[in-house]
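Look at a sample.

——
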Amino acid sequence: MHMTALGLAACLAAGLAGPCWAQDLKATPRLSDTQVGFDPAGHYGNYTLTVTGPNKFHASASSNTGTPAIDLRRFGGYDDGLYNYQLSGSTEEKVAVRSRLNNGRETRQADPALKSVSISGTFAVKGGAIIKPSAAKPTRHDKDAQ
């Protein structure tokens, strides 16, 4: 049972180690000691960056034009562990809005909305600083680990 749980945890950690493939906002994460930001590779707007982490850590920042950044220190205490980020934004492409409800009133065509795009992923904090993915070392969590 213990090895099964360990194997599942390892698969999840490997799968969550970077941004997901199916996301359509093109941006490169910019991680420093305590700050999370992004360099966009396209024309987007209406950004919202959300970071969640251990012990109910939650931080959010928004910007209409430039990508927002979050400095973990500005949101109070933060612990070592695995953190999740999501950056969402909109393109200039418009998509039709469909009304699912026919309430018996005269039908009015809804104004088109901007297409929403996002990117998400994880990063680790150790010793009060963000570990850059290239600097992360694999660790063993079994009884034979030194």
